[in-house]
Amino acid sequence: MSSDDAYSSFLDQANQDTSASKATANNKTARTKAVDTEIPVGLQNVDQYYTSEADEPFEPVSLRWDGNNMPSEDELADLVGHDSEVSTMSTKEFDPRGQYKDVLQTVEKAGDGKSRIFRIGYGKTRVEYYVIGLDREKGRIVGLKAKAIES
C-alpha cells in the first residue's frame, strides 16, 4: 500500500501547476495605479472584454488631474506609476473592427466628451490600454483600461 501512496504523491507533485507562481510574478510587474478618486457611476459596471490572448475585462480608471488638457504620454506614465514605453493610438488603431464603440462612448460620457487612447508596454508581449477622458469639473481623468497579451 505504501508504494501506491508514494506513486500517488509523485503524480500529484508532477501535475502541480507551476505557471501560477510565474503568472503572479509577471502580474506584479504589470500593476499600475488606476484609481485614486471616486469612479463615475457609468464606468463602474462596464461588462466588456478586450480581445487578445488574455481576453481581459475593461476596468475603471479615475485619477486626480489638475491639468486643463489630456495628459501627455510622460504625464500618464507618472500618473499610473509606470516607467517604460507609453504611446498614444488613434481610435482606428485601437479599434479597427469597431467592437469597442461602447467603451469609447462610455468614457466620453464620463468625461468632457472626448477620449484619448494610450498603450503601455510591459516587455515584448504584455500591454495595457487606457481609454481616458478629461473631467475638468472634478479635476480628474476618467476612463477604462484593459490588459492584453500580444505575441
SSE map:
Elements: H1 2-14, H2 19-29, H3 41-44, E1 49-50, E2 56-57, E3 59-64, H4 73-80, E4 86-89, H5 91-94, H6 101-110, E5 116-122, E6 126-135, E7 140-149
Antiparallel strand pairs: 1-2, 3-7, 4-5, 5-6, 6-7
Mind explaining what this structure looks like?
By secondary structure, this protein is of the alpha+beta class. Helix content is 33%, strand content 27%. The chain contains 6 helices and 7 strands, in the order αααβββαβααβββ. The strands form 2 sheets. A 5-stranded antiparallel sheet has the order 3-7-6-5-4, with helices on both faces. A two-stranded antiparallel sheet has the order 1-2. The N and C termini lie far apart (48 Å). The model is unreliable at 20-30 (pLDDT under 50).
The helix/strand order is HHHEEEHEHHEEE
- Low-pLDDT parts are 20-30
The helix/strand class is alpha+beta
What is the beta-strand fraction? 25-35%
Number of H/I helices: 6
In short, what is this structure?
Helices cover 33% and strands 27% of the residues.
Which properties best describe this structure?
single chain, five-stranded antiparallel sheet, two-stranded antiparallel ribbon, 7 strands, 33% helix, elongated
